Give the backbone structure.
Amino acid sequence: MLNSTLCYIEKDGKYLMLHRIKKENDLNRDKWIGVGGKMEEGESPLDCVIRETFEETGLALDEPKYRGLVTFCFSEGEKALTEQMHLFTCEKFSGSLSGDCSEGELEWVPKDMVLSLPIWEGDKIFLELLNKEKRFFLLKLEYDGDRLVRHRLDFAGG
């Protein structure tokens, strides 16, 4: 099982979004997502989100908040992939946004416009939770190809 992180950095009512357009054979190709990536051996989710955010954006996260755990189950024919994504938000950061991200184009997008971008269907569920809920949540998203076929939401602690 793959472990990854994703962070939605907030500033002035906007999220820093990554338009994934640069890598070939990218599962997220042409989608808009937050910043983050795969955990390396020996990393905690916090270590990973701090490292990946700096590598992709040049920004140093000061107080990232761990908001939820999202389990993605992808299947397409005989192929299957399960990924656990540790989801963060962050309003406090330092540094300057780098102009060169190897994964795509970075852009500050008004939070009320994010749901109208080409994003994964399941991302709409957790983005709404990030905007409304303060509780930690567990979300399972099951996909058949690009189509969300099932989801289950639980809040930690009841």
Q: What stands out?
A: The chain has one domain: 2-155. Helices lie at 45-57, 121-132. The longest helix spans residues 45-57.
